[in-house]
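Support request, please re-run this one:
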Amino acid sequence: MFQFFMQFLKHPKTIGAVAPSGRALAEKMMEPVSFARARCIVEYGPGTGSFTRELLRRRRAHTTLLIIEQNEVFYQKLRKELEGEQDVYVIHGSAEQVNAYLPAYGFETADYILSGLPFTSLPKAVSERILEATQKALGEKGRFITFQYSLAKQSFFQEYFTFTGRLLEFKNIPPAYVMVMKNKTGVFSKKK
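Re-run finished. Output below.
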C-alpha cells in the first residue's frame, strides 16, 4: 500500500488512485469474463496486481495472460511475483503497443482486455491511442472491461465502442463503475 501511494505521488497522471483496487472491485471486474472460452486475456496497468491475482485464480489452463505495465517499480514487483507462472507474461511497456505484443505471443486478437488505467487523468492523445489500439486488439468478438470512479468518460468510450454492460461496485473505496464494451459492428479503428 505504501509503495502504491509513493508511486501515486511521483506519477499522479498515470497511477490515478492513492490506493490499489480492493478485492470487491477485482471480483466485479471478473464477472463479465467467460473464463471457459478465453484463450488470451490482456491486462493494462495492473499496478500492484489486484486484478492480476484474481485473473490467475480464475483462469483455465489453456488461457494466456499478457500483463502490460509501464511503471518500472510495479513492473519489477509483478515480474518477480509472477515468475514461473505458466503462460503469464509481464511486459514492461505501454498499452498503446498491445498490437505488437499480441503476435509476439502467438495471438492476433485478445478475448478480453481488462484495464486499470486512469483514463480521466491520462492526456487525451494518449487515451485516444490506447483506445484505437484496443479496437484493433479486440477484433470482432473481444470485450474491453475497464473501471472508472465516475461516468465522465462514458461518452468518450462510446466514440470507440458499444457498451454491453455497466456494473457498480459500492464496496470499493471510492465506489467504481465497471464498464463492459465491444467494438462497434465492422469498425476496428476510429480513424479511417
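The two ends are 43 Å apart (CA to CA). The chain is about 35% helix and 20% strand.
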